[in-house]
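Section 5.1 Outputs to date
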Amino acid sequence: MKKPQVVIIGGGFGGLTVVQSLRRANVELVLIDRTNHHLFQPLLYQVATAALSPADIASPLRSVLRSQRNVQVIMDEVLAIDKERRLVVLAEGEAIPFEYLIVAPGSLHWYFGKDGWEQFAPGLKTLSDALDIRERLILSFERAERVLGRPEARKFLTFAIVGGGPTGVELAGALAEIAREAVVRDFSGLRAEDFTIILLEGSGSILSAYPSLLRDKANRFLEELGVVVRLNTKVTEVTEKGVYTEKGFIETVNVIWGAGTRASSLLESLRVPLDHQGRVIVRHDLTIPGDPGIFVIGDAGCCDDGLGKALPPLAPVAMQQARYVASVIQDNMREGTRPPFIYRDRGMMTTIGRAKAVAEIGSLRLSGLIAWLLWSFVHIFFLIGFRNRFRVMSEWIWYYFTYKPGAQLIYWKPQRREKDSGLG
């Protein structure tokens, strides 16, 4: 008999975990992703701030899955899902049939309807985003030293991060450390007091998902690093000149967006109810309404935690959902007999800088060096492949003792001009 074909859209934490969980199942797997690599997104900000190289946090999907015989990897973009004909339509014209479909395309930057802001305030979701931000930052340091002592130098030495969630907090802390410890050693004309790093948050606190004790700790860590935290400060406009807020204007060519995400527009082709962020409102077994063979997991699905609250868009959520879906497919259960998905919260952690972090694990509330060490070991453990773990650990040890980031390179494009990056 022909084996059931399971198609997985997205090679992130959710998609890759489904594939690996079905490695011994009697199914044919097809993994589709627009890139050729699995990206360890929790460390993406370290590529953006030049602490790590792209290869440290990404692994080719074919290399990761080379020993798995029941999977085919396709590098292409999915344009639409035809659930009636059981087909996934690709950009290059091919249509892939499926019996089971797992939709895990991740999420995109969300500018709350102001998509024009993206060119001035890049977000951080992909390797290309991280490399773009890294290039902007390093070019700013170069340009600032050339105009040092003149009024225009300030816009190159001011950095505004929009959004006080984990991404914004981690970026602000890393940037403050690198700017004040590493950059001033490489650029003899720059001083630590020349830099201004501003974290803008529209609500009354950063890291709103954490208890107040850890929020206050994180705020204190940022202030110790010299980061200016502005709460209750909503952004009203972003231009090539800087950021306009309800409380004034910040002149800068360095704006980084971390304020919101939305789901992929691909989900609209499913023609099912979506929430305000464009995520599919899934059923108790993570399927779409009316179709027990199509699952939506990770950032693409809006899943209730059982207490009326949507699960956060975190890697542990996607991985637990992936293992659940894999077990459902393996058991080949009929609709109505499937147990509901139940998320087991393992806690959350956010690093703010060198030896500074906050962590909530069950009833434990940790901060400082202990939380940072725990964060470091957890992230090393979950990196794909021994080489990645070894490289990242080596880079962290090197940076801890020397304050020398290992990836301060600009991959110059001959046709690029300074004015294209806002530096001319």
